[in-house]
Amino acid sequence: MTAVLLTDDLMTASRVEGAARRAGVTLVTCSDAAGVATRCNEQQVDRLIVDLSSGSGDVATIIERLSAASARRPLMIAFGPHVHEKLLTAAAEAGCEQVVSRGQFFAELDTMFARLANAAAGPVPRDHDASPDG
Fold first, then answer.
1. How far apart are CA 47 and CA 23, in angstroms?
2. Most exposed: 25, 28, 90, 111, by fewest CB within 10 Å?
3. pLDDT tens per residue, range 122-131
């Protein structure tokens, strides 16, 4: 399972990388939309995480570049300061599947990557029949 983080903030990148590592998810960090489009074209990316407070461009431009670069667009998660309502709304309107405040994103970071890792692992195999009659 691979995720790409779009941010130019080293502290954000460090926190997200730590959570990805704990969950066993491969994370690539890019500082601009062109890098994200290239990465998504080179390999299968399952999640794109966009830091809306970074100076890396608007989400509509990112989605447009991804659509041009790759036949398969990854699920997009965008986060930003809760006081920037217009930015959060614009991300949702541009097509991000999940848009959350920065605080909510960091509060749910480990859970998000654990779910991502579990989705990659597929369904848990079941024993045929654990009943005594079995």
1. 14
2. 111
3. 544 433 343 3
